[in-house]
Amino acid sequence: MYLAVCAVAGTGLGPVLTGLISDTFFPHAEGLARALFLTIAIAGALAIVLSLAGAEGWRRLATKSQNSH
To answer: What 3-state class would DSSP assign to 26?
Structure first.
């Protein structure tokens, strides 16, 4: 389920977001390259933030599992 959601979201939102950024902020000839870079940077930063946010729950689960043994 996780991989399906990631694939659908990435395939569906990636090109749309890149086109929107390109048309809005970089309407010149090399705008698409800059929009691709910015899209990848935003996705990477979002992945890091979400990973850090989710790590706390995994830490609690691991600690709880260790203490029960």
So the answer is: coil
